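User:
Can I borrow your eye for a moment on a structure tokenisation matter? Would you put together a sequence-and-structure record for a protein of your own picking? Please set it down just below, with no commentary around it:
AI:
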Amino acid sequence: MLQFLAKNMKYPTRAQLTKTEGLVMMQVTIDEAGKLKEVKAAYSDSPLLETEPMRVLKQMTTWEPAKSKGVPVASTYLFPFMFDMTGEGGSDKESLKAKCINFTQSIPASAPGQPLFVSEEVTVTGYGVVK
């Protein structure tokens, strides 16, 4: 999964041009059949950063659903994406990680009764664009 995300993610050009960095937390619901039912930006430091993770997550194939007592159940997955313009001033990674942890703790209230899984963070690095 992480290899798929890393291979297909691209730093949005407009975000590179404006040197926009930050955290985007994508929330995905996987239904009982393993299909992505809902993909949304649950938290974002900038709207410029949201569309790329959404595009790539929607390309993913069917998942194996979570199970409760052997029965498939809907579940919620969180994907933290860190957008970093390395060499362009850097970002405060500790602050971004703290945001991610704080946000993760608030999610169960928005998806009651569903198992919650948090992916390892995906860092998307922008090196600038060629005009």
Remarks:
- The radius of gyration is 15 Å.
- Helices lie at 2-8, 13-17, 51-58, 93-106.
- The beta strands are 22-30, 36-44, 66-68, 71-73, 75-84, 116-118, 122-125.
